[in-house]
Amino acid sequence: MTSKPQLLAWLTCDAVHVDPSSGKHTILGIFSNIQARHFPVMHPFMIWFLTITDCAPGPHKLRISMGLGDATPLPLLERPFESQSPLHRINLINEIRNLTFPEAGEYALLIEIDDEPLLATDLTVTT
Questions:
Q1: For residue 83, which of 4, 29, 92, 101 sits 20 to 30 Å off, Cα-Cα?
Q2: What is the fold, at CATH topology level, of the domain defined by 6-126?
Q3: Position 74 pLDDT exceeds 60
Q4: Which of 63, 60, 81 is nearest to 73 (CA)?
């Protein structure tokens, strides 16, 4: 029996630096909401950083979807990744460029691994 992947960290931030000699990750500019003066607004660049564990060995697919309010979230990002062992912690750095928000509100985010929900959260966009 295989276990379901577990989410250890989910962050929205400005940048992630990976030290080439140690492999350590430095997270820069963590934020949880976006403020805008007018709409639609386009956010030029952000990172969605997540750490997962308990992934069965082999290939997997990460999908992140987003929707406003009760609307069905639409896929924004899909990417493959590889797991060597369920004991490994896998850091996934996802660059999000030019993300447009048509209006203020609570934007629902759905994070899935292999089509199974891992996290449902939101990103608040205000004036």
A1: 29
A2: Immunoglobulin-like (2.60.40)
A3: yes
A4: 63
d(CA 6, CA 87) in angstroms, rounded, equals: 11
Structure tokens at 95: 């660059």
Residues 9-56 pLDDT 10s:
999 999 999 999 999 999 999 999 999 999 999 999 999 999 999 999
Structure confidence at residue 69 (pLDDT): 79
Contact 51, 90 (CB under 8 A): yes
Q: Where are the domains of the chain?
A: 6-126
